[in-house]
């Protein structure tokens, strides 16, 4: 069996990694930061839609998710938003790509485990 790689990160952390490349002493280019997010065999992005949803954020997510789409690499998006709100946050171009090839929305509508008393 081949070794597989996975990356679990929040959208905010992924966007910050790209923004950090703008500093003068950055060791990583913007293209390298985006490629690092597109590279793993599986990408899991948490807290989708928590952010402001700026055009820059949408463009970074498009670049990463479109690269993965072209290479047919899976992605899991986690959000407290419903499917329509996630699609609105990501933009129709990405939402359309995520639906292709059998992309699925799985709703977990039970009470948060974190809210339960210990």
What features would you describe in this structure?
The protein has 118 residues and is α/β, with parallel strands linked by helices. 43% of the residues lie in helices and 11% in strands. It has helices at residues 11-20, 30-38, 55-70, 83-90, 92-99; strands at residues 6-10, 42-46, 75-77. A three-stranded parallel β-sheet has the order 1-2-3. Helix 3 (55-70) runs parallel beside helix 5 (92-99). The chain starts with 5 loop residues before the first strand and ends in a 19-residue tail after the last helix. The model has no long low-confidence stretch (mean pLDDT 89).
User: What's the alpha carbon Rg, rounded to whole Å?
Assistant: 15 Å
What's the average pLDDT?
A: 89
Q: Give the strand content.
A: 5-15%
What's the oligomerization state?
Answer: single chain
| Poorly predicted tracts of residues | none
Largest sheet: 3 strands, parallel
- Class by helix and strand content? alpha/beta
- Shape assignment: globular
Q: What's the β-strand tally? A: 3
Number of helical runs?
5
Termini separation: 41 Å
Q: State the strand order across the main sheet.
A: 1-2-3
Give the SSE string.
EHHEHEHH
Report helical residue fraction.
Answer: 40-55%
